[in-house]
Amino acid sequence: MALTQKNTCWLMRAGVLFSLVATLLLNAMPALAMTNQDAAALPNFSDFVRSVQSGEENVVRGVYVPNVMAYRVAQQPLDNPGFLSSKEDRVTQFRMAAGYGTVGLVAHNYLAGESFFNLEVGDEVRIVYGDSKVETFVVYEILQYQALQPNSPYSSFRNLDRDETLTVNQMFKRVFVSDGYVTFQTCIEKDGVSTWGRLFVIAIPKAEYEELWEANGL
Q1: Distance in angstroms (rounded) separating the CA atoms of residues 75 and 179
Q2: Residues of the chain with pLDDT under 70
Q3: Phi, psi of 201 (to 5 degrees)
Q4: Strand partners, 203
Q5: What ranges do the domains of the chain cover?
Q6: Does the model's pTM come out above 0.70?
């Protein structure tokens, strides 16, 4: 579906995104509650794939990044688009993003989301489906934004690396509308404000990453 065909859904999309952000805000907790996965304790990949098997086709059930994370993926209920898992070994797939070509993975910054800060450009991301199918991506871009009104689900966002300010709708388009990418999202804590900003880590298909690598003579 072309992006132009999706423009008529902006209001509905914004409402769901507001709900998601509001959930992050309302459930914010102190940094001392954070738990980070120990890379040495991660299961090997084959064991992880078996552990998340459910027999479901086209349903994401796990995300694995060597030496960084191995998390089960919870699905949002159809009637609760703002749901985020409260389990420390889970990330949640953002259902609405899937309709725009993106595997959106969100988590609280005091639980699984803390591991998102350990992701680096070039890291391999493996998405595991319930039927054991695996798709491989590579981290391509890391974005950090300040929420200009951190306690409001309608906040605009200021890019911390360049002169750019985005509305919520523009932010959604920037990170969740794609041709088959993976986007990790969590909150950034600063100055005692647990929802001060947002971290987005974008991974692209491995084949596409390798093509870009070769095209740039790297």
Answers
A1: 21
A2: 1-35, 37-40, 217-218
A3: -120, 120
A4: 139, 182
A5: 3-215
A6: yes
